[in-house]
Amino acid sequence: MEKAYRYRFYPTTEQESLLRRTMGCTRLVYNKALAERTDAWYQRQERVGYNQTSSMLTSWKQESDLEFLNEVSCVPLQQGLRHLQTAFTNFFAGRAKYPNFKKKHHGGSAEFTKSAFRWKDGQVFLAKCIEALPIRWSRKIPEGCSPSTITVKLDASGRWFVSLLVDTNIPQLPKSDKQIGLDVGITSLITTSNGDKVNNPKHFKQLRKKLKRVQKALSRKQKGSNNRYKARIEVARVHAQITDARKDFWHKLTTQLVRENQTIVVEDLDIKNMVKNHKLALAISDASWGELIRQLTYKCEWYGRELIKIDRWFPSSKRCGNCGHIVDKLPLNIREWECGVCHTKHDRDINASRNILAAGLAVSVCGATVRPEQSKSVKAGALKQKLK
User: Fold this and answer.
1) Are the C-beta atoms of residues 259 and 304 closer than 8 Å to each other?
2) 183, 260, 306, 347: the active-site residue
3) Multiple choice CATH, 170-199+245-388, 3.30.420, 1.10.20, 2.50.20, 3.40.1260
4) Catalytic: 267?
C-alpha cells in the first residue's frame, strides 16, 4: 500500500534558487497549457489532451523567450501537464470545478519521479542538485522501502516541505468488537453513540482577531512594495497556524477512533450545499467535517477497519431511538426533546449518533437503504434484476 511521509526541510541558497525556478517553470507550463486548452475549446470547439500539450511543451522549449525551461528538470514540467489532465478529467466527471490558473503567491510544488532523483544512504538528491536536501527527519521510513515519487512544496508562508511516496506494508490493528456511530456538530464537534462529546476547539475563532489585525495591516501597504510582501507573509503564517492546529487535532482524534473501534459509522453529508447558509458557513468551515471523513477513510483502509457512510437524508435527529417515531419538525435550537409516542427523553446529538450506528449496522449486514421510500434491501433488488 502506498503511504506518503512528509517532512520539513531547509534548503541552501543554491537549492532554493533552483527549486524556485523549477516551480516557476512548472507553473508557467501549467498555465500556458490551460490557456491553450481553453482557447481551443471556445474558439474551435476542439478538445486538447495530454499528448498535444506535451508536444506544445517541446515547441515552447525551442522558443527564444522560453529557453529558460531547459535549465530545470523536465520531469516536473511533464508532471504538471499530467496534473492538468487529471483536473480536466475530474471536471468532466462532475467531481470538481473548471481548473484555475496557478498563482505565484500561493507557493508552488514540483513532483519528481524516479528518473529525476536519487535515493542514496537515506538521503534525497534531486535532479540538477549536487547536495542532498537537508531534511529534518521527524520519523523514519520503513526499512527496505525507497520512494517512488518525491514532491517538493513551498507554502504561502515560505515553509519548505518534501513528501516521499513509498510502497509499504502497513501492519493491521488487532480485531476489536467495538462499534461506534458519530454525529458531527458545531457546539459539540463530535458526539459518539457511547454518549461522549468532543468540544469544538474553534481554531479559526481563536486567531480571528490576530488575522484581522494582520490583514488590516496588509491592506494599508502599497502594492508592489517590499513592506506589502512582508505583510502578506504574516497573513499566510496566521492561516498556516490555523490549518496546522486543525489538522493536528483531527489526526489525533481520528487515530484514536480507528484504534479503538472496528466499525465506524458516519453520515455522508453534503457540506458543499450546507455552507451556502451564510449564518452557519463560517462555523461549518471551521469545524472541517470533510477533513474528518477524509482521514477516517484512508486510516480505516490502512488498518483494516470498516467505515460505513449512511445516506445524508436519514432522519437521525428526528427519529426516536426507542420506538422509531419520527417527529415532523426539530429546529436546531432544540437540543433535548421528548418522544410524543413513548415519552422517552432524548439528548438530540446522542440520540442521532445512536441512530446513525443502528442504520450503519443495517447497511453493513443486509445492504438496506435508510430512506423510507427505499426500504427494501439493495441485495434483494439486485437479485430481482438477475431473475428478470
Assistant:
1) no
2) 183
3) 3.30.420
4) yes
Reduced to 3 states (helix: H, G, I; strand: E, B; else coil), residue 110 is strand
Lookup: cell for 358: 443502528
CA torsion angle 9 13 14 16 (round to 10):
50
- Break the chain into its structural domains and give their ranges: 2-167, 170-199+245-388
pLDDT in tens, 357-371: 999 988 877 665 555
Catalytic residue, chosen from 131, 177, 248, 267, is 267
All three cell numbers of 17: 534558487
Q: What pLDDT score was predicted for residue 367?
A: 61
Active site residue 65: no
Could you say which of 39, 347, 349, 373 is catalytic? Answer: 349
pLDDT in tens, 279-300: 899 999 999 999 999 999 999 9
Span 303-311, average pLDDT: 92
10 Å CB burial of residue 364 (0-12, 13-18, 19+) is: middle
Residue 349 is a catalytic residue: yes
The pLDDT value recorded for residue 371 is: 53
